[in-house]
Amino acid sequence: MAKAATSLSLAGLILVAANLLLAVSAATTHTVGGNSGWTIPIGANNYTAWASTQTFAVGDTLVFNFASGIHDVIQVPWASFNSCSTANQIGSTFSNSPARLPITTAGMHYYICGFPGHCDAGQRLAITVPASSSSASPPTAAATAPTAPAPGGSSSTVPSGPSPGGQVPGSGAISVPSMAFVALSSLLASQFLF
């Protein structure tokens, strides 16, 4: 009888821990640019396209991987993002890679490389973080507007402004906390089966 009570107490503790773990597991780490990292993009709209495949939420972290000394990351307001200006930056300049920037608020967030010409060449990122991560339907992609053609004759597209909008859901990879939940569930099941 004592073993059954101990097993039930342990099972309850595991369920509470699993629920707490799931509550925290909403946080996702987004590697900006995927395998390409944070660099001057080869094609127009590289970061716009990348962002459209992600779902961002408060509590997530952006990881910028870049060659230190030739790139950096600066968070800026819309006007500075739109003009590729380092004026009015928000917080510090991140000069060492990898730069891990937590998303602490909902709304539009803008990031640029502060090295001369890099932002103008497309090394800039705009993301939308919804006020709530739960919604009945997937959010739509952020609005975009064309910019002036680049010297090579191609044009790029950047978000049109600080209007709200969402991103298309991400890759669906299993997070570490989700795997931990599976492991805890297995442990719980083993308590009742053996």
From TrEMBL:
**One of the Pfam families matching this protein, by short name:** Cu_bind_like
Q: Which residues form the Phytocyanin domain?
A: 28-131
Annotated region (Disordered) at: 136-170
What GO CC terms are in its UniProt record? plasma membrane
Ranges annotated as biased composition (Low complexity) = 136-160
List the GO molecular function terms: electron transfer activity; metal ion binding
Which UniProt keywords are present, listed alphabetically?
A: Copper, Glycoprotein, Metal-binding, Signal
Annotated signal sequence range: 1-26
Q: Please give the name of this protein.
A: Phytocyanin domain-containing protein
- Species source reads Zingiber officinale (Ginger)
